[in-house]
Amino acid sequence: MLAAPSPASADLVKLANGRVLSVEACRFEGDSVIFEFPGGGEVRAPKDLVAEILPDEVPHAKAFALEALASSVSAAGPRMADSAIRELVDRVAARIGVNLRLARAVVEVESNYDARAVSSKGAMGLMQIMPVIAQEYALTDPFDPEKNLEAGMRHLRELLDRYGNDSMRALAAYNAGESAVSRYGGVPPYRETQDYVQRVLALVRQH
């Protein structure tokens, strides 16, 4: 594997006037928002100044993912049938100890069962593994369906254990990173992450 980039720790705040501000974090108190800046220092402003909060991009992750896809032995072979992938999801989830309905929902939302999926942010495969997570779990081919599922399920299981089986916080950490959940004390105020958590939990109820 190539050396994985370090995860970003900043937030990008899109302001109502269209400008984008990079901050360490921001928190809301009543009608105010407080911006925390790297190295210390805070600024308080009206809450309606903020249009959206986005996690900062991880640099070079997309290039890493495309290079991994190009060199993947699994991706070069024939595609697995959807039914075979679904059976594999259930087997790996049972082996790792992840609730089957939750496992199915995460894979559906993350990749729609596409083992060769690459996101705009560089997430890879069925569980949309980021390069830093691939390195943490020694995942040498992120596009090997079973290995990708094993790494993703292990990561999700560890997050569930860390957060006392609180699915909302575990899913938020899976999507946005543990540092974001720690900074905000729960699901961070990222529209993408909030939508992600709700979509997964809705599918869990349907399965």
Q: What count of helical segments does DSSP give?
A: 9
CATH topology of the largest domain: Lysozyme
Q: What general outline do the C-alpha atoms trace?
A: globular
Instruction: Going across the biggest sheet, name each strand in turn.
Output: 2-1-6
Percentage of β-strand residues: 5-15%
Mean pLDDT: 88
As residue ranges, the low-confidence spans are 1-9
From N to C, what is the helix and strand string? EEEEEEHHHHHHHHH
Rg, Å, rounded = 18 Å
Largest sheet descriptor: 3 strands, antiparallel
Tally of extended strands? 6
Distance between the termini: 36 Å
What structural category arises from helix and sheet content?
Answer: alpha+beta
Work out the count of structural domains: 2
Provide the CATH top-level class of the largest domain: Mainly Alpha
CATH architecture of the largest domain: Orthogonal Bundle
Write the layout of secondary structure elements.
Layout: E1 11-15, E2 20-23, E3 25-29, E4 32-36, E5 42-46, E6 50-55, H1 61-71, H2 73-76, H3 82-96, H4 100-111, H5 131-136, H6 145-162, H7 167-176, H8 178-184, H9 191-206
Antiparallel strand pairs: 1-2, 1-6, 3-4, 4-5
Helix pairs in contact: 3-4, 3-6, 4-9, 6-7, 7-8, 7-9
Structure description:
This protein is α+β, with helices and mostly antiparallel strands and 207 residues long. The chain folds into 2 domains: 11-55, Roll (SH3 type barrels); 61-206, Lysozyme (Orthogonal Bundle), CATH 1.10.530. It is built from 9 helices and 6 strands, in the order E-E-E-E-E-E-H-H-H-H-H-H-H-H-H. The longest helix has 18 residues, at 145-162. It is globular. The relative contact order is 0.14.
